Amino acid sequence: MRTRGHTARMAVAGALAMALGCSLAACQGGSSPPSSSASKARPGTSPSSPGASAAPSASPAWDTDPDSLAAVGDSITRAFDACGPLTDCPKSSWATGTDPTVASLASRLLDDPGRDSWNLAVSGATMADLPRQMAQAADRDPELVTVLVGANDACRPSVDAMTPVAGFRTDFEQALRTLREEAPGSQVYVASIPDLQRLWQVGRDEPDARRVWDYGICRSMLDAPRDTGEAATARRAQVSERVDAYNSVLREVCTEVRRCRWDGGEVHDYRFTANALSRWDWFHPSREGQSDLAELAYERITDG
């Protein structure tokens, strides 16, 4: 990972935080898809069971060597701020990147990643955006779809603005149902949401991190990072509890769907260090962090 000078980092801190304030709060251009609660399931399919089908059939075995890959999610999968400030860097994505220092999942699994992998993630996306992304993935009929989304549902201006757990579940169920209906042969790897409190723990004593965070990055967790009073501690605990609830939803829903593999909470349990975080925002993974995410996914997907 390249080391930037203090002056250069601070020169872009304001602009960076303004962009992240939009990105992390999912206010990027374009409208969100209609609420999945209004979607209609196929005859014989329960809206609460995305893996259900009108007629039971034998579930194929998990393929540890898929030939194509589509990645959906948010700025983590777009490798935002991994190469420089204020920009996606998909070449360094843990899922589909071509940067040899990252050794992405696609580069480990596929003979021709450039031809057979697609990064459909969008910086700033929340779970409400996943059904639309999953439809785009289904159009490519990939053998594997990777999912890493949900941090932006917890990273809001306040704890009251976090996505309700029920809505999070509904949108995730709809996304998997869309894939099952439109690309029934695809299998899914679902990564857990990172531990946002761990990010606060790593950066709270770093002056550069505090300066950038003060512009409003993930305020529900990172606001007033040196404040360890009762109210601030309770606020951070609420965010962590919501992330835990989201991860429970990801696990429960994935478990009910054929050929869906949950990461077992490994991304959430991953102990991010300062070197694994972008020095532009102390929030997104650096190239080193992206490489670690690729390794976690590869081990889980290739575990027979």
Could you walk me through the main structural features you see in this protein, from its secondary elements to its overall organization?
It is a single chain. The chain has 304 residues and is α/β, with parallel strands linked by helices. Helices cover 40% and strands 7% of the residues. The chain is built from 12 helices and 5 strands. A 5-stranded parallel β-sheet has the order 2-1-3-4-5, with helices on both faces. It starts with 5 loop residues before the first helix and ends with a helix.
Give the arrangement of secondary structure elements.
Layout lengths: L5 H18 L45 E5 L31 H5 L3 H4 E3 L10 H10 L4 E5 L2 H4 L10 H18 L4 E4 L5 H8 L3 H7 L5 H4 L7 H26 L4 E3 L3 H4 L17 H15 L3
Parallel strand pairs: 1-2, 1-3, 3-4, 4-5
Helix pairs in contact: 1-8, 4-6, 6-10
Q: What tags apply to this protein structure?
A:
304 residues; alpha/beta
Q: How confident is the prediction overall: mean pLDDT?
A: 86
The Rg value, from CA coordinates, equals 19 Å
Low-confidence stretches: 1-49, 51-57
Question: Based on CA inertia axes, which overall geometry fits?
Answer: globular
State the distance separating the first and last CA atoms: 33 Å
Strand coverage percent: 5-15%
Helix content: 40-55%
Derived from helix and strand composition plus strand pairing, the structural class reads alpha/beta
Number of helices: 12
* Strands in their spatial order, largest beta sheet: 2-1-3-4-5
Give the strand tally. 5
Helix and strand string, N-terminal first?
Answer: HEHHEHEHHEHHHHEHH
Sheet having the most strands:
5 strands, parallel
